[in-house]
Amino acid sequence: MRTRLNAVALLILPLAFLAAFFILPLIFAVGLSFDFPRFTLHHYQRLVDVPVYRMVYVKTLRVGLVTTVMCLILAYPCAYFVSRLKGAARTVAIALIALPFMLSVLIRNYVWMLLLQDTGLVNRLLQGAGLTDGPIRLMYNELGVTIAMVNMLIPYIFFPVLGALMAIPPDLKAASANLGANRLRTFVHVTLPLTVNGVLAGCLLTFIVAVGFYITPAMLGGSREMMISNLIAFNVREVLNWPFAFSLATTLLGSTVVLYFIYRAFVPNATVLKAV
Amino acid sequence: MRRDPRSSVIDVALALYGCAVIAFMVLPIIVVIPMSFNDAAAFEIIPSNPSLTQYARLFGSEQWMTVLWRSVRIAATVMVFAGAIGTIAALGITLASRRVQPLLEAIFLAPQIVPSIVIAAAAYYIFVFLGLVGSTLGIVIMHTLLALPFVVVMVRGRLQSMSPDLAHASASLGAGPFRTFMHVTLPQLRVALVGASVLAFHVSFDEVVLALFLSGARNKTLPVQLWETILFEVSPILPAISVVVLALPILIVAPVIWMQRRAAATASIMEPK
User: Fold this and answer.
1) N or C: which end of chain A has fewer CB within 10 A?
2) Separation CA A214–CA A148 (nearest Å)
3) Which of residues 33-72 of A touch B (CB under 8 A)?
4) Which of residues 156-175 of B touch A (CB under 8 A)?
């Protein structure tokens, strides 16, 4: 009983801090989106009725999905490769994947702007190789946004998958080989099923983070490539339409929370697999 | 073990693919470092006349030095606040009943899951009433909120791996909970706390969305100033700033890794083999 009291005493301050500056503001925001203390769905109606806003939602979902799939395609084989490295080589590879986290988010986006602009390195290389005559538009469109987002989100899939791969006891693969399975069969029947939870957890996390991106679409997308976050910022800072901004925020918040709970449901399974 | 020739082809292909992905990941860092040595006239990926002009301009610019110093001050304050509140929260969660622990964890992780823009819009609305928009205090509060999950996760991870025997021994020798915490628990948390503090510093130092909404015109942080420079002018000074911003966390992290290695070495000496 004493420890329970201690727990409450310790948690009062942190929970009060969270309540005052996180939970209450969010409740206010959700309330205002319904014109609290009155009640209306007017702002949500606008969201559905105005084609431009519908398009922003479709674009956000599309960019989120494409980014997640591309991250998986790039990160899974890379994690498989790294998991089979030994000693120092593995440490270096992991450090190199984690290193960009240390580089400022703004700088990473800025470097992609420099690389992808009309006179940027990528276009010069393409023209130098004679693949194109003029510059290809790689920026201020969805392509540029997606390239930069994939670059920033690969670690979110790489690390859960690497964790799942390293947790597979080597005996299992040896057993599979002894029983006559070739590498492909071993991969499909042993490795892949044991990493499915890592993949799902990583993909969900990537998608959750991706649909909330603000900086990358603002910098590499320009003013026409708005995602939900940019539309929220626009309504808060330029139009000063709070209730509408908060109705957008509420949809983003709601979908994030739902996906997060699904994600949490996967994680215990992943640890169970590790224990096997 | 028999080697299938097809097998080694797969291995080579896999290694090439893996290295290509790693190259894609480090590309931004590789590009930005040589660019920072451009001289005044040119703006090339690999400078033809390498010079330190841009660094001199950066360190000579009152505007950049003001925002850099302000960001360091804010991040240092956030580090202390988040470290204290996060440690208390982690201790509380560990003492709470097992049934509510997952819920508490979810609540304390939530600021990291909810998109920054949602938090920023909601906080902005409240801060207008509280008169906190345009103050560094407002930024410190919200950055502490964002850094809290990292501290809670790292300290809690350490608490879970610690044996409760030492604390029990301390209690049975007559030490109160506070003395036990200060003399038994806290020393064991040291490495986790240093790691968490570095992360908290980095979260604040690199944060742009909340700062963009809350800093106002007079209290711009370094990322806000960077954001405006990137979007509204082409400036050859930017890569030099990037390198400084990149180097700063590494300068902080290096001693931590060194400390952790030393702690690990000490632990392995102390453990019976």
Assistant:
1) N
2) 12
3) none
4) none
Cα–chain center distance at B62: 26
Please spell the DSSP secondary structure of B183-217, one letter per residue.
IIIHHHHHHHHHHHHHHHHHHHHH--HHHHHHSTT
Tell me which chain B residues have a C-beta less than 8 angstroms from the C-beta of A80: 14, 18
- CA A79/CA A84 separation, integer angstroms: 9
d(CA A111, CA A104): 11
H or E, element range at B74: helix B62-95
Whether A112 and A220 have beta carbons less than 8 Å apart is answered as: yes
How far is the C-alpha of A76 from the C-alpha of A98, rounded, in Å?
Answer: 15
- State the smallest CA–CA distance between residue A235 and chain B in angstroms: 10
pLDDT tens profile B149-178: 999 999 998 888 887 788 888 888 888 878
Cα–Cα distance for residue pair B96/A178, rounded to 1 Å: 49
How far off is chain A from B174, nearest CA to CA, in Å? 16
| Cβ within 8 Å, pair B208-A26 | no
Task: Select the residue of A11, A97, A121 nearest B22 (Cβ to Cβ).
Answer: A97
B130 vs A: CB within 8 A? no
Chain-centre distance for alpha carbon B195: 9
Let me know: does B78 contact B201? Beta carbons within 8 Å.
yes
B85 touches chain A (CB under 8 A): yes
Amino acid at A254: G
* Structure-block tokens of residue B261: 């290695």
B217-254 per-residue burial string, b: 16 or more CB within 10 A, e: under 16: eebbbbbbbbbebbeeeeebbbbbbbbbbbebbeebbe
SS3 for A89? Answer: helix
Q: How far is CA A224 from CA A47, A139, A148, A230, B90, in A?
A: 18, 12, 17, 10, 44
Q: Which of B26, B115, B227 sits opposite A256 (nearest CB)?
A: B115
Residue type, A206: T
- Tens-digit pLDDT profile for residues A111-156: 899 889 888 888 888 888 888 888 888 888 999 999 999 999 999 9
- H-assigned helices in chain A: 2-18, 24-33, 42-49, 51-83, 87-98, 105-116, 121-128, 142-167, 170-178, 183-186, 192-211, 215-216, 228-234, 242-275
Q: Which of A104, A187, A200 is nearest to A152 (CA)?
A: A104
Residues 6+ away with beta carbon under 8 Å from A7: B92, B93, B95, B96, B97
What's the pTM?
0.88
* pLDDT score of A270: 38
CA distance A78 to chain B (A): 4
User: Half-sphere exposure (CA, 13 Å, Cβ side) for A42?
Assistant: 10
Q: Quick check: A121 and B32 CB within 8 A?
A: no
* Chain B contact present for A92, CB below 8 A: no
Predicted-complex ipTM score: 0.89
Residues of B within 8 A of A242 (CB-CB) are: 125
Given a cut of 70, whether residue A273 has pLDDT beyond it is no
CB contact (8 A) between residue A7 and residue B108 = no
